[in-house]
Design a protein that fits this description.
The protein has about 260 residues and is α/β, with parallel strands linked by helices. Helix content is about 50%, strand content about 15%.
């Protein structure tokens, strides 16, 4: 009985320490966002974000900030990660798609690919801490389908890399990609790289509070599932059919990947 009580007390202390660490990291996350807002707000107000040089500098700032945050999170033992990516990320007009198990997925990928563009949740454009950064960096909100397609295609045609989470929101029970990503890729991407994000244990999910953190270190693995040369993908077919085939292919390969690991 005494051993059980001691074991329970040890687990409670471990849980409290993990929650305290999560709180510190979320404070750091918030401070980064607030400082970024102070820097980016004047850029947006003065309209300087319309200049490509300023936009690139803004993206570099976000890239370095998230690199720092991931490094700090790893240093203190909150998380660890490994990338198993064979393809060089960051080439012109490259589209990177991934499933979306947690809050930090976009942080990882933006910190990995310098000056990448990204499709972000539309509600974030109203977030007081993030809206200025999104505008200064020229990130694309998924608010309106026509505008989303137009801006995404334009970004790829201009040689930018585009990070897309085709589920649109964080993964719940089953991976289900929307069709917009396939249409964007067939119109303008030079190649599309599919990345599977596997995290254990699951945490930082949609609707889950920050303090609901696991007692053990969170481990992320990033696997390359495929790399498609879009010029050769069903090249003899019109774009609507190519997009349909790409959508089917991506849904099938991601579902198989995570069915095997479930």
């Amino acid at each position: 009985m005494i051993k059980t009580a001691l074991g329970s007390g040890t687990m409670s202390l471990k849980k409290l320490l993990r929650q305290a660490l999560a709180a510190v990291l979320f404070i750091i996350f918030g401070v980064i966002c607030m400082v970024g807002n102070l820097i980016f707000l004047p850029i947006v107000i003065l309209g300087l974000h319309k200049f490509k040089t300023v936009q690139n500098l803004s993206r570099d700032s976000v890239w370095l900030s998230w690199k720092f945050f991931i490094a700090v999170s790893k240093f203190f033992g909150y998380l660890d990660y490994k990338f198993y990516i064979k393809t060089d990320l960051g080439k012109n007009s490259q589209m990177i798609v991934a499933n979306h198990p947690s809050l930090l997925d976009v942080v990882f990928l933006i910190s990995k690919i310098r000056r990448a563009n990204c499709i972000v949740k539309g509600d974030l454009t109203k977030n007081v801490f993030l809206s200025s950064a999104i505008k200064a960096c020229g990130y694309i909100p998924n608010t309106a389908n026509e505008e989303l397609l137009e801006r995404s295609v334009c970004a790829l045609e201009n040689g930018e890399n585009l990070i897309v989470f085709p589920e649109g929101t964080r993964t719940k029970d089953e991976i289900n990609f929307h069709k917009a990503a396939s249409h964007i890729a067939t119109k303008a991407a030079s190649e599309i790289i599919g990345i599977a994000i596997n995290m254990q244990p699951r945490s930082l999910r949609k609707g889950e509070p920050w303090y609901s953190t696991p007692d053990v270190m969170i481990k992320y693995d990033f696997y390359e599932l495929f790399c498609l040369d879009m010029k050769g993908f069903f090249a003899h077919k019109p774009n609507p059919i190519r997009a349909k085939e790409l959508h089917r292919y991506m849904n099938e390969i991601y579902r198989k990947e995570f069915e095997c690991k479930s």
